[in-house]
Specification:
By secondary structure, the protein is an alpha+beta fold. About 35% of the residues lie in helices and about 10% in strands. A three-stranded antiparallel β-sheet has the order 1-3-2, with no helix packed on it. A two-stranded antiparallel ribbon has the order 4-5.
Length: about 230
């Protein structure tokens, strides 16, 4: 004959988790069918359930900490640290890019020989905005090469109003923005292809503002030495 005998089982998850019945003394009180005369298991002392929970937490913490050590402690070169000449003959741990490397999302379509957009007032306004942000610090807002950084000792760039640059095609300015020129570094990662064309178009407008022929001067504007001025 079997009868129900209450037993207490330890719970490693603390109060609120367990089998049937109520929690008591760090474990859960439940019932089980045991043969008649079977001894009831002795409940764990109060402190042992707490130690079990702490032990599980410590084990998980150590396991998680060990996951990052393999990456943190692996052999590697720090920034600007010289390299082993047997590994890299030039002794530089910072390696150059592999030839042919391109940036993610880089447009691989060939660059057109002429501006691929209609020159509108909106395009010129965009070009002026980007020119004032990226070009004016060196070239000045007039394009004469007398920007604020030049006044503080930076080398003087050529004036856009020189005969050489007035005769240059728009694609020349696009290429200089893309690839850099002389001490000027590339702005390809800062200025989009669309904005490079917009800047090139605005540079041409700047040139015309100082060298507009009389026949192109609109009514109400008089010519002065060096360019057109509003009367």
């Amino acid at each position: 004959m079997k009868r129900r005998i209450p037993i207490s089982l330890p719970s490693p998850f603390g109060r609120g988790v367990g089998g049937e019945g109520r929690l008591r003394k760090g474990g859960c009180k439940t019932t089980a069918l045991l043969p008649s005369g079977t001894l009831t298991p002795t409940p764990l002392p109060r402190g042992e359930g707490h130690l079990l929970r702490v032990g599980i937490v410590v084990i998980f913490a150590l396991a998680l900490a060990a996951c990052g050590q393999a990456m943190d402690n692996q052999p590697k070169y720090e920034t600007f640290e010289p390299a082993n000449p047997d590994l890299f003959p030039d002794g530089q741990s910072a390696r150059p890019r592999v030839p042919g490397t391109i940036a993610r999302g880089q447009d691989l379509k060939p660059r057109p020989d002429h501006i691929p957009y209609k020159v509108t007032m909106e395009l010129l306004k965009r070009g002026r905005e980007q020119f004032n942000v990226f070009c004016a610090p060196c070239h000045s807002r007039l394009g004469d090469g007398d920007g604020i950084v030049v006044k503080r000792g930076f080398p003087h760039p050529p004036s856009y109003h020189s005969q050489r640059l007035r005769a240059a095609p728009l694609v020349h300015f696009y290429d200089v923005i893309t690839d850099g020129y002389g001490i000027m570094y590339s702005y390809a990662d800062r200025v989009t292809p669309h904005d490079r064309w917009a800047i090139a178009a605005y540079i041409r407008a700047l040139q015309l503002s100082q060298h507009a022929p009389k026949k192109d001067v609109p009514p109400g504007v008089t010519l002065a030495s060096g360019g057109a001025h509003h009367g």
